[in-house]
């Protein structure tokens, strides 16, 4: 195994040992490192599967196009089944939540995640010379014939097709995911320090967004009141969550939702992404995603978005119980915080979309 010191950004380069082609070479390198070996050669995939302990004879391999954060390779096996291997471009010491949570849910028999097949772990020194362990890749079932959740929802919104049944089913799926994660992984009570820390993050994010979007200042008092209300109510137990749940992280096939990509928000550090949080943060992320799907065709489907959000909450409530969506003040604060973050992002990167989160903020503070 070739290893090099790292900076803050990481990239993964994989190849096959020329002296022993049965074993892959895993090299962690800086982002500006040279290109590695071709990643879709069956010999390389076979060696990678050997290192992962994944059984099966490799018949074909092809790199999926379009993925941004990682590199995914669809692998056909001799028995006709298919797996997808995700190579993490950004790697950190510690257990990658995409591997950890996929494995936990798959082993629990959850039908809403792809079947976990294996993962690759390696050791390498960081910039300070400290050697640590982390995940380089994951292999899981490839779900062929599924529709991307964002594509499914935006098509329905643009055509004014009722989406209540799908949204309600997704709410139930989200609730089951939270139930399994809470049962299989530790939960902790929210301490006053943790609540205060979260509230401080909300306020910092608002200050950053208001600097980029001055129009938000008019809503500052109402937003501050919402954050204060959320900090004053009793919080539910903190647990492991998806961490970046939205329609683009979902597939839909045979009337069933499948949840993907448990890495969490990529700009957050690993410690943040693996820390227990209120499950309502995932719920708020989905509510915001329905809002975006409704506006994707030019903003003519506001009623569609409201109906989808309501159906999603109904599905979650029916599966988890009414108490799972309490306190309402906390859900509102998480949804506001997400919309504030979106306003900052859109102002910097997609100003034509800025009206989507701004309208949501106005709606939420009007409450």
TrEMBL record:
Pfam families: APH (PF01636). It comes from the Bacteria. Gene3D superfamilies: 3.90.1200.10. Residues 62-310 form the Aminoglycoside phosphotransferase domain. This is Aminoglycoside phosphotransferase domain-containing protein.
């Amino acid at each position: 195994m070739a290893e090099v010191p790292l900076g803050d950004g990481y990239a993964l380069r994989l190849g096959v040992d020329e002296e022993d082609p049965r074993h892959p070479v895993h090299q962690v390198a800086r982002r500006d490192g040279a290109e590695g070996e071709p990643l879709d050669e069956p010999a390389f995939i076979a060696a990678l599967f050997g290192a992962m302990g994944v059984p099966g004879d490799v018949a074909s391999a092809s790199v999926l196009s379009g993925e941004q954060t990682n590199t995914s390779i669809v692998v056909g096996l001799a028995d006709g089944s298919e797996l997808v291997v995700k190579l993490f471009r950004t790697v950190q010491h510690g257990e990658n939540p995409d591997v950890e949570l996929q494995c936990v849910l798959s082993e629990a028999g959850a039908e809403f995640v792809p079947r976990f097949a294996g993962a690759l772990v390696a050791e390498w020194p960081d910039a300070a010379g400290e050697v640590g362990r982390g995940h380089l890749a994951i292999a899981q079932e490839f779900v062929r014939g599924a529709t991307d959740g964002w594509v499914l929802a935006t098509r329905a919104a643009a055509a004014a097709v009722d989406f209540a049944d799908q949204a309600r089913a997704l709410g139930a799926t989200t609730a089951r995911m939270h139930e399994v994660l809470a049962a299989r992984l530790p939960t902790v009570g929210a301490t006053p320090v943790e609540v205060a820390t979260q509230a401080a993050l909300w306020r910092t994010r608002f200050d950053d967004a208001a600097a980029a979007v001055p129009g938000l200042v008019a809503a500052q008092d109402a937003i501050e009141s919402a954050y204060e209300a959320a900090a004053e109510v009793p919080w539910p137990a903190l647990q492991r969550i998806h961490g970046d749940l939205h329609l683009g992280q979902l597939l839909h096939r045979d009337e069933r939702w499948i949840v993907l990509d448990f890495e969490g928000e990529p700009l957050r550090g690993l410690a943040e992404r693996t820390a227990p949080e209120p499950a309502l943060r995932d719920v708020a992320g989905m509510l915001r995603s329905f809002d975006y799907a409704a506006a994707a065709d030019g903003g003519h489907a506001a009623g569609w978005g409201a109906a989808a959000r309501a159906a999603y909450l109904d599905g979650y409530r029916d599966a988890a119980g009414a108490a799972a969506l309490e306190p309402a003040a906390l859900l509102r604060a998480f949804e506001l915080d997400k919309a504030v973050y979106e306003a900052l992002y859109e102002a910097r990167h997609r100003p034509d979309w800025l009206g989507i989160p701004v309208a949501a903020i106005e709606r939420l503070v009007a409450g």
